[in-house]
Automatic annotation (TrEMBL):
The keyword Methyltransferase is annotated on this UniProt entry: yes
Organism, scientific name: Nicotiana tabacum
Keywords carried by this UniProt record: Glycoprotein, Membrane, Methyltransferase, Signal-anchor, Transferase, Transmembrane, Transmembrane helix
Membrane topology recorded in Swiss-Prot or TrEMBL: Single-pass membrane protein; Single-pass type II membrane protein
Protein name in UniProt: Methyltransferase
GO molecular function: methyltransferase activity
GO cellular component: cytoplasm; endomembrane system; membrane
Similarity annotation: Belongs to the methyltransferase superfamily.
GO biological process: methylation
Length: 617
């Protein structure tokens, strides 16, 4: 009759024979080592004292290795019952963007346009699956070719939507058999965009759009940017132009702009503030963006005033505005009454109107808002440093901020005085800058052989040839001071970076924006403001530890990262050993290739480098 222990072992080994036989072998090795260690003490005594430390060290290492292997196998066995390989989502989710479910929002009682807004509190279905690429998806062309030609199968755009595109920015493209071609900077018809940009510069009082930087314009918020042609032109002038467009289930301007390798995020002017602090941009631009600016008693214009820096410009091009105003070029006074009244209450000056285009400038005098004029928009109470998707406010922000500095008074790069305004010690800032310069060199030397030698073959395509790299759109998920962005620019890498400052950390977004970079506030417990397959490289320094402190679900974060990462895209995470090892295990469940790299600096910091494969249909 078998003992209870033997019965238990028998049942265990029948349930999982392969794993448990391996476990038994490891335990046996431990037992043998222990027996040898005790029975061979007399032999060890006959060996010279100089050899004893080596024998003991080797024995201890072998014992510790066996124990480590046993614990790892045990841990894998436990996790095997908790996590299964993640499968592919259905075809209907190929272009899925969480938090934008119009049907659910309507059922929840949202109306008057709010059903089209972002409502993550209603999107809690948490379907654990991987967003698959579209049937005809192809890896985007390398920059700068990818700016001018994209694969039509990579975006959701019907022929009818293409033909109905009416604005300047949307007209400048050609639909071919499997490509959408945008007119390059050397093209002939691109003169429309160049002429338009030159017109805006003249209306501001400049000789040419090449003088935007001298006029203090470095950052531009382009609302409803069409498909990015104006933004592409501004980038060629070394301006940072960020496209913000409403969510669209198909024909999305944000999706096409990102596919071209240009900065863009989803954002609505409906009921909530944009994810930027006050005094963020030098210029805000709207060309036929579909917003009725004088509706809701100017609530949308108040939001524009909030994000504009003192002395910043608001450019509006709209045939509707032209019909309300004058059709001839004029100076102040030919505006339609509603817009004229609202802009006066905001202390804006109308610089000039030409045909359908109007240019206003925000005041540089913070006392203008407290001048006592009747009907002025009241001041907000307190500052909005950590506001995140709060309701649109009917008050003026930023007048009491230390950052109330006219755009013409700002230096090209942040000096010690400006750093102190942001609460940053200059020594810390410059030390951070030096660290990222070194890190970028290491990242590029690390990724280059992997990109050109070790990445999986693309279906039906040959490997790319140097000097082109496969990284254009970069998402820094915990940007701190924007040091990675600055180091990439200094190294002349052909990339742009979306700098994300997570909720719950010191809000450095005002500093990042004042450096002339793109950035947003974001809660990483929620999905990001973008379409699937829109970034080439995701980077996070200390992100995993932050996520753990916020109580976010790590597997949901990884699935979200997989959603926004392009096939063959890269992930670089830097963190402590514990979080890195946990994510390395989870990465295999979502089919990523993962490598852990010891930094060899004596700390427990590790790099986790992952690549997303081109998953079959």
């Amino acid at each position: 009759m078998k003992s209870p222990l033997l019965n238990k072992l028998s049942k265990t080994f029948r349930s999982k024979p392969q794993f448990n036989w391996l476990l038994l072998c490891l335990v046996s090795v431990l037992v043998v080592i222990a027996l040898l260690g005790s029975s061979s003490s007399s032999a060890f005594n006959s060996v010279t004292s100089s050899v004893k430390p080596d024998i003991y060290t080797n024995y201890r290492k072998l014992k510790e290795q066996a124990r480590s292997d046993y614990l790892e196998l045990k841990g894998l066995s436990v996790r095997e019952n908790q996590i299964k390989d993640v499968g592919l989502c259905g075809k209907e989710r190929e272009n899925y963007v969480p938090c934008y479910n119009v049907s659910a929002n309507t059922l929840a009682g949202f109306k008057d346009g709010e059903e089209l807004d972002r409502h993550c509190e209603l999107s809690r279905e948490h379907q654990y699956c991987l967003i698959r690429p579209t049937k005809d998806y192809k890896i985007p062309l390398s920059w700068p070719a990818g700016r001018d030609v994209i694969w039509s199968g990579n975006v959701k755009l019907t022929k009818d939507q293409f033909l109905s595109s009416g604005s300047i920015m949307k007209r400048l493209m050609l639909l071919e058999e499997n490509q959408i071609a945008f007119h390059s900077q050397d093209g002939l018809i691109v003169d429309d965009v160049k002429d338009y940009s030159h017109q805006i510069a003249e209306m501001i009082g400049l000789g040419s759009d090449t003088e935007f930087l001298q006029a203090g314009v470095r950052t531009v918020l382009d609302i409803g940017c069409g498909f990015g042609s104006f933004s592409a032109h501004l980038l060629s002038l070394n301006l940072m132009a960020l496209c913000v467009g409403a969510y669209e289930s198909s024909g999305s301007q944000v999706q096409l702009t990102l596919e071209r390798g240009l900065p863009a995020i989803i954002g609505n002017f409906i009921s909530k503030q944009l994810p930027f602090p006050s005094l963020s941009y030098d210029m805000v631009h709207c060309a036929q963006c579909g917003i009725i600016w004088d509706s809701k008693d100017g609530l949308f214009l108040i939001e524009i005033d909030r994000v504009l820096k003192p002395g910043g410009y608001f450019i509006l091009t709209s045939p509707i505005t032209r019909q309300q105003g004058s059709s001839t070029s004029s100076k102040k006074g030919s505006m339609s009454t509603p817009l004229e009244e609202i802009t006066k209450k905001l202390c804006w000056s109308l610089l000039e109107q030409q045909e359908e285009t109007f240019v206003w400038q925000k005041t540089v005098d913070s006392q203008c808002y407290t001048s006592g004029k009747q009907g002025m928009v009241p001041l907000c109470k307190g500052e909005d440093m950590q506001l995140y998707y709060q309701p649109l406010a009917r008050c003026i922000s930023g007048t009491g901020s230390n950052r109330w500095v006219p755009i013409l008074s700002r230096s090209g790069s942040l000096n010690s005085t400006e750093l102190k305004v942001h609460g940053v010690h200059p020594e810390d800032f410059f030390e951070d800058s030096g660290f990222w310069k070194s890190a970028v060199r290491n990242y590029w030397s690390l990724l280059s052989p992997l990109i050109f030698s070790d990445h999986p073959k693309r279906p039906g395509d040959d490997d790319p040839l140097p000097p082109y790299n496969m990284v254009r759109n970069v998402l820094d998920m915990n940007a701190h001071y924007g040091g990675l962005n600055a180091a990439l620019l200094e190294a002349s890498k052909s990339v742009w970076v979306m700098n994300v400052v997570p909720l719950g950390v010191h809000n450095t977004l005002p500093l990042i924006l004042d450096r002339g970079f793109a950035g947003v506030l974001h809660n990483w417990c929620e999905p990001f403001l973008t379409y699937p397959r829109t970034y080439d490289l995701l980077h996070g320094n200390g992100l995993l530890s932050h996520i753990a402190s916020q109580g976010c679900n790590i597997i949901e974060l990884l699935l979200e990262m997989d959603r926004i990462l392009r096939p063959e895209g890269w992930v670089i995470l830097s963190d402590k050993l514990g979080p890195i090892e946990k994510v390395r295990t989870l990465a295999t469940q979502i089919r990523w290739e993962a490598r852990v790299i010891d930094l060899q600096n004596g700390s427990d910091q590790r790099l986790l480098v992952c690549q997303k494969p081109f998953v079959g249909k």
